[in-house]
Amino acid sequence: MYRDEDTIASHIQDFLAADAYAVVGASANRRKYGNKVLRCYLQHNKTVYPVNPVAKSIEGLDCFKEIADLPNGVTSISVITSPAVTEKIVEHAIRKGIKNIWMQPGAESIDAINSCIKHQINIIAKGPCILVVLGFSE
Predict the structure, then answer these.
(1) What is the structure's pLDDT at 138?
(2) How do residues 62-109 score in pLDDT, each as one tens digit?
(3) CA 39 to CA 47: how far, in whole Å?
(4) Residues 116, 18, 108, CA angle at the centre, nearest 5°?
(5) How far apart (Å, rounded) are the C-alpha atoms in residues 100 and 89?
(6) Rounded-to-integer distance, Cα 77 and Cα 107, Å
(7) Quick one: pLDDT at residue 8?
(8) 47: part of which helix (H) or strand (E)?
């Protein structure tokens, strides 16, 4: 998907330039990546919103049921869902006007990636995990 390391770095730099983030697939279970990614943003003092259709709050933050409910300032989302769900998430992100999507390892879908490219969304997929890039400690 990427031609060289500079391209990956550029995509990541654009993603991390956001003022606010959302974790789609956020989990209250601290062993799951949906929770670790949320805590990673918090550890780095980022404004972050958990998206989970059933939880009321995670890590003390109020949850949003879906992407459409997010504040307009959210331009970057981390996706930690199954590939089939990721495809639906991308459709919702396009409607919301999300500019950057980081599909965490295991969440990627070729159809979702192609949809992001078609709609000129900065996509990070089949690459590094945000936990490694930002650094995360338990």
Answers:
(1) 87
(2) 999 999 999 999 999 999 999 999 999 999 999 999 999 999 999 999
(3) 11
(4) 30
(5) 12
(6) 13
(7) 85
(8) strand 47-51
Strand 122-124 and strand 100-103: pairing? parallel
Token pair of 5 as six digits = 């390391």
Domain ranges of the chain: 5-134
Per the CB < 8 A criterion, the answer to whether 76 and 50 are in contact is no
SS3 95: helix
For residue 120, give Cα distances in angstroms to 98, 114, 123.
10, 10, 9
Place of tokens 């192609």: 114
Task: Please report which confidence band the pLDDT of residue 4 belongs to, taking 50, 70 and 90 as the band edges.
Answer: low
> CATH says 5-134 is which class?
alpha beta
Say which residue the tokens 């979702």 belong to: 112
Write down the pTM of the prediction.
0.94
What's the CA gap between 10 and 93, in Å, rounded? 21
